[in-house]
# Entry
Amino acid sequence: MSLVGNLGNENMQTCLDECKKCLQACEECRTLCLREEDVKSMVKCIELLNDCIDVCDIAMKFMSRGSVHAKHVCKECAEICDLCAQECGKMQTNHCKKCAEICRQCAEECRKMAM
# Structure
């Protein structure tokens, strides 16, 4: 669903929505991780959260403008979201567990876009 005109990117809307949700979840999770008592044990998780935030942002931009390269970016986004989900899933905090699930959902939608 384009907001201002027909860009032919309607087939990307579900993936756009999942990337936005994932970006928000990762931002929230990163903030909560940084507030944890043992932040040092979460460094790898925080680094992957940063990567996931950035790649979701880039993927949304490519899809929003209907770029022919959106599929390539979505493939990379799926890979990074999967890695982030794996690392967040290792953490014992509820926010990391929830974030991991959202990252997995985003990765799945991005894989569909990459086909």
